[in-house]
Amino acid sequence: MSKRHIIIISPASAKANNGNWRTALRWKRFLQPAYRVSISSGEIALPADAMIALHARRSAPAIAAFSQAFPAKPLIVVLTGTDLYRDIHSDPDAQRSLRLASRLVVLQAAGLEELPSAMREKTTVIYQSATPLKAVAPANNKRNFTVSMIGHLRDEKDPLTFMRAAERAHYPMLRFIHIGGALDTGLEQEAHFLQARHARYKWLGNLAHGETRRKLKHSDLTVIASRMEGGANVIAEAITSGVPVLASNISGNRGMLGEDYPGYFPVGDSQALAALIDRAATDAEFRLLLWRQCAARAPLFSVEREKTALLQLMDNALKPKD
Fold it and tell me: Residue limits of the Glycosyl transferase family domain (predicted)?
């Protein structure tokens, strides 16, 4: 008996090197032992037994086409940050995707609060995972304190807040590294200007995922400055590498790190972020508190947990109806 075919729609390609593409690739790997899986950027490779579409708005044409061609087959829509915190509240295409989906997936529990109550019953929470990397023990003679940000240069990731914090933080041994491709020419210019003015800040551009994880692993701290996040994969990667996180105080980050996490700063507040960075660099007890609370969340982001949840979702969706 041939394996059933699942098509994953990702609006991003491998070249984009973003969260959507990494999720698609990881989910393909999880599903492949039981199913035949293909990834497409929008074209539907028919016939297929089920579809998983990442991004309700950007994948809307493929979602509509699959629903029309196979109205009785499972159609799972995975909601991103821009879906949850912007598009589903105002965009007709995203709203249509919600209605057409037989199942919805959010990537952290706080995402459920953004959905209409009627949609929550068909929604599953699946936290994204990352393979654990052994934490790097600080060298006895280490002087620099490295703060990283991983995220493309686009408005939703708010890289300017990280850049301004790099200018405003006071601790002299701070070093800032910024990884991500330039998707906005204005932000790219800002990165070049800051790099020219301050030797402590380096914009490294778009790196391969393995190199990005290596840089993250060797950071003392990482920053998520985003204005909106569906469930940042970099949080999972940081926590499973033993790297504490400072994050903008938004629903998507609270859903990953917990409501009582002490490492939040107001969205867009570079002065508050700079103060937190200085505190983390100089206050060992505060650093330990951040590390302990991140470590307590680590089980949420285990590979086995995500794989089990995904396989259970697909097995149930494809189970023959009585």
Answer: 140-287
Mean pLDDT of 81-109: 95
Q: pLDDT digit string (tens) for 159-168?
A: 999 999 999 9
Token pair belonging to 310: 């995904």
- For the chain, the residue count is 322
Task: Tell me the one-letter amino acid at 47.
Answer: P
Domains of the chain: total: 2
Contact of 300 with 127, CB cutoff 8 Å: yes
pLDDT value for 120: 95
**Which residues, listed in sequence order, are joined to residue 106 by a DSSP beta bridge?**
125
Mean pLDDT of the chain: 92
In a domain, 139, yes or no: no
290 and 168 in a single domain? The answer is yes
Contact assessment for residue 156 and residue 81, using Cβ atoms and an 8 Å cutoff: yes
Average pLDDT over residues 70-82: 94
- Domain harbouring 182, CATH code: 3.40.50.2000
Q: What is the mean pLDDT of residues 124-148?
A: 82
Q: Is 249 within 8 Å of 228 (Cβ atoms)?
A: no
Question: In angstroms, rounded to a whole number, what is the distance separating the alpha carbons of residues 220 and 138?
Answer: 9
Give buried/exposed letters for 228-266 (b at 16+ CB in 10 A, else e). bbbbbbbbbbbbbbbbbbbbbebbbbbbbbeeebebbbe
Please name the amino acid found at residue 214: R
DSSP label at residue 114: G
The separation between CA 23 and the C-alpha centre of its own chain, rounded to angstroms, equals 9
- Do 286 and 177 share a structural domain? yes
Question: Which two three-digit tokens encode residue 52?
Answer: 């998983």
Other Cβ atoms less than 10 A from the Cβ of 211: the count is 11
